[in-house]
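[job 4471] stage=fold_predict status=RUNNING
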Amino acid sequence: MRSLRAMIRKEFVHIARDPQLIGFVIGLPILLLVLFGYALRLRPDHLTVAVWDQEKNFFSVSVKDRLADEGKLEVVEVDSEETIRTWLKDGRARLGLVIPAGFSQRLAADQQTPFALFVDGSMPTLAQAGLFGARVLTDEEASEALRFDDPDHPALPTRKPPIEIVEEILFNPELRDSDFFLPGTIGIVIMLVTLTLSSGLVREKEQQTIEQLLVTPISPGALIIGKMLPYGFIAALDFLIAAVLARVVFALPFRGSAIGVVVLAALFILALLALGALISTLSETQIQANFMAVFVIVPSVLMSGFVFPIEAMPRWLRPVAWSLPMTYFVEASRGLTLKGASIAELGRDFAALALFAGVLGAVSIVRFRKRLA
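[job 4471] inference complete, writing structure tokens
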């Protein structure tokens, strides 16, 4: 019994001498609780709807006010249907509505007016939420508010609503869940492989072979790059396998350019390699490196838009989502596969991944040099 107590005490002493490990063990449950409690919501409060108002009178304003007040949508004015489609393609809006000219005249004549509603179907959850929000234009309350009734000549009890919503779902017309999940799934696979393999420097530290590498005529930067690039080639191969399987087995469309897909994969892998190198310079043991990787992987899965829409998260948590490389990869990969967007249209996402790769790589090299000094 005394030997058992001694062994237990010894292990607690080892744990207490590793403050980083204690921080991870305590911090991970807190992180998960906060994410699940605040960030993970399926239905957003305010989706952006781009409205082309060709009528511009009291009645069209009442339609837009109803969308904002009852539909919980954020209304933004645009000047054409082409602008609506552009905004849906680059993600500035999730819905687009056309209020046609002659709407008020049809109201006065007790005629139904078709409104074109364009929906971004790349994220089925948001598409369904947008369709639900647009229903406030055709419900009984809206119909009564937009009717002109003569008290001396009561109307028929059964009449069509003044507004008819004509839906057009873009990019993913069938709202297939596989088309929504697969672009992000490819990114998750690459992240798991890259961050797991890229802790090579930590293994060198644990095996005490890092000193042998340091006496060779190679600079710290070249040492880190040489350790990371082989894992980059492996990650690129995994990306190719995952992309081919997604296309052949699940019929994932690749509407964008092949060059764009290749560039996106390269930038994402470089950003992950730089992140893995930084984790290696911050860690002394493989356990520490694994915990740090978990702290990146869990928020990336939950907050990048891979499963839960960023629009549904509290505004104070969204900067955390946009601080993750995975967020930009998910947005760009869906743009390339489902929307047929170009590199120029996804320039922000490509630039962000390049910035992650450059900054994290530079910080890793600087930290490694300081450690040697």
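[job 4471] summary: The longest strand covers residues 113-120.
[job 4471] exit 0
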